[in-house]
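I hope you will forgive my troubling you with a question about protein structure. I am sending you one protein, given as its amino acid sequence and as whole-number tokens for its backbone shapes. Thank you for your consideration; the sequence and its tokens are set out here:
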Amino acid sequence: MPHAPNSSVSILMPVYQLESEIAANIDRVADVVAGWPSVEIIVIDDGSTDDTRRAADKAAEAHPHASVVGYPVNRGKGGALKEGFRHAKNELVVFLDSDLDLPPEQLPAFVNEFERLDVDALVGAKRGSMTSGRYPLLRRFLSLTFAAVNRVLFRLPVRETQTGLKVFKRSALDSTLPRLDTAGYTFDLELLARIRKAGGSMAEAPVTLAKGSSQGLSLSTLWEMGRDTVKIWFRSLRW
């Protein structure tokens, strides 16, 4: 069994419109990290208009190391993680999507691997979960294409950037996160590109998707991804 991390850990969970699931998901993450000596869970409500904030607040009351922050207007995942980082206090910072498409039970092994590798960023690699029947063929093709384009444009030493489980040294985020321009889907790409440009080190480790977790991509999301990737590349020429 993986041992508890040697470092203090902040887990940032951005959430939007998840009133029916967020309470149980907070409880589940809290149970996974209950034995860790120094941990905080920060849930960031990204301007939800349903009952997400109330449900999250109520769930967090049961866990002394959990808290909820937020704001009234939706800013996107990048904006939510920026807000969560403003409240984080610990040495390592974990990004974990609140829908738990990436089950939190793999957090101990993932953080252990991060400490073993001693890199600035560890990115979850879900390729092993992208099998026929669990991940739509079109989604797999688009994911692989996006990864190939980013390897060419940004020379990143990781093949995946968008997986919703990552861990960082706080020092790597201190110098890059506040400077990010992107708030939407490609937020992760800009963050990793900036860390790399600043001389930071990174690696990948396999993660597992929850069964039935895959969702389709709308045409508007595909357009946003392509447009923002080009924008990030042009901006990166001036970093």
Q: What stands out?
A: The CA atoms of residues 110 and 116 lie 10 Å apart. The chain has one domain: 9-236. The mean pLDDT is 90. The first helix runs from residue 22 to 32.
